[in-house]
Amino acid sequence: MQEPLAGHIAMVTGGATGIGAAIVERLASAGARVGCCYRSSRAGAEALAARLGAQGCAVLPVQVDVASSEAVRAAVESITAHFGGPVSILVNNAGDQIATAPVDSMDEELWDRVLAVNLKGAFLCAKYCIPGMKSARSGRIINISSISAHSGGGPGAAHYAASKAGLEAFTRALAKELGPFNITANAVAPGVILTALHQRFNTPESLEKLRQGVPLARLGVPDEVAAVVAFLASADAAYITGEIIAVNGGLRMD
Amino acid sequence: MGGPRLANRVAVVTGGGSGLGAEMCRAFAREGALVAVTDLRAAAAEAVASEIRAAGGQGDAWAFDVSERAAVEEAAGQIVQRFGGLDIWVNNAGISRVVPFLECSDEVWDTTLRINLKGSFIGCQVAIRAMLPRQRGAILNMSSQSGKVGNSAYAAYCASKFGIIGLTQSLAIEFARHGIRVNALCPGVVFTPLWEAQLPDYARKRNLRAEEVQAYMEDKIPMGRACTPQDVAQAAVFLVSDEAAYITGQAVNLAGGSVMH
Q1: What pLDDT score was predicted for residue A200?
Q2: Distance (Å, rounded) from C-alpha A136 to C-alpha A174?
Q3: Residue A12 DSSP class
């Protein structure tokens, strides 16, 4: 069987850890050459690139703060130059909650930073990847949203929930705008997936409570989100656009 | 990567003798599944099953009406016996009539709901009973873009397809603990035999000539083209495969951007 993503060049933000690292691994194993973008997890990105490189995959660690226009432009350029072609698959996965707080005591800086990373970052990466996709008349943009966009998020996470809801509306707008160029834009909305982010904002007891609410009776694992991203990036999903695919074990169905 | 994604899974597809159902049967077989091609029309089912076998796959045909419980149960029993279990069941059989609402007879309403919705209900019940002993399985119910948004002269069909999503979500919750996932697919317009048959009625509804309909419809789709049976079959393979292990209760659009909720 031919590798389903052979010939593709992917850019995955937040690619060094958690769901992002699983996405990098899935896309690279499917034959794509992958720019693994990280902000601070340099060691993680380099270790991942080395491990996948040893399996014959092509993964390039790229340092970038997605909230910085200049940094994103440079990252897209370096991926394009390194792999010798434009990015054909963009996965906007970088996201953070940083800290939680009730809205009436939430620092404006916290709100701004979360919106800058989760929402503006996706805009900037799309902005700099779209021209290459338009020229190729083909491309895939996949935004990693969250169940928070639908549920309103956990305690003190209004900034995170708002950023993810914005990301979903952005996804749909991209789908309409880019459909005529044969570029699809979709989002994946994970439920509770076992990552460092969840372990940071939950106790084992609260995770167990979350688990009990999931119809499939277990938390998800990063590779289960990555498998859906790989599907959306593949030729099999050519007619799916503007869609939000929930990967949540049945926790929400809207 | 690589390797067939549905190796040795036993898959049942209703309405498998033509259109989307036939394409799903072919795709499942290519991915290594043992396929029960079922259709109201025995000859149509047999033709697809023979085609699968000729291509080196495994397929057999069964003929039944999805709204006849006894016939569905009997065929399911034979399929389980023949293939040694049941892993995948696709409720795809359906009918579609474009009829102005005030001309919609009780017969059109009842038949549409009986085949599309009650047929899916019976299929789910029969499939789940067969899947419970092994505590795993994947059910896929064919809804439609018309299961997400209403449309004129299409009340019975839309009601049946909205109903399928309610059925899907309820069963996803009820049987998740038993390892059975239940999802729905919502294709936009696909130019299948079912569609061809109702083209004159659709043209009348929009005041178009029959040959203008395709361009009229595709012009409204962001991706600028209709959905194809291949698009549907590829998404179906994904949703019933282990790649979608954590996805249940979802109604996935295949509408080229026409519907986004």
Answers
A1: 83
A2: 17
A3: E
Residue A253 located in a structural domain = no
Residues of B in contact with A220 (CB under 8 A): 246
pLDDT tens readout for residues B3-17: 899 999 999 999 999
Domain B10-188+228-254: which topology? Rossmann fold (3.40.50)
Give the A:B interface size as CB pairs under 8 Å: 113
Neighbours of B47 (CB within 10 A): 17
**Residue A37 in tokens:** 């973008």
Rounded-to-10 torsion of CA B135, B140, B141, B144 = 150
Domain range enclosing A187: 9-194+222-246
Q: Quick check: A50 pLDDT over 70? A: yes
As for the ipTM of the complex, it is 0.84
> In this structure, is residue A57 part of a structural domain?
yes
**Neighbouring residues of A11: CB distance < 8 A, sequence distance ≥ 6:** A34, A35, A37, A62, A75, A76, A79, A87, A89, A90, A91, A125, A129
Any idea where the domains of chain B sit in the sequence?
10-188+228-254
Determine contact, residues B257/A176, Cβ cutoff 8 Å: yes
Mutate to test the interface with A, among B145, B171, B260 (most CBs of A within 10 A): B260
DSSP annotation of B140: E
Number of domains forming the structure of chain A: 1
Q: What is the 3-state secondary structure (H, E, C) of A48-59?
A: HHHHHHHCCCCE
Q: What are phi and psi of B14, to 5 degrees?
A: -85, 155
- What phi and psi, each to the nearest 5 degrees, are found at residue A187? -125, 155
Supply B86's token pair: 């049941």
Q: Which residues pair with B182 in a beta bridge?
A: B139
Between CA A199 and CA A246 the distance in angstroms is: 21
- Residue A132: both structure tokens together: 């290459």
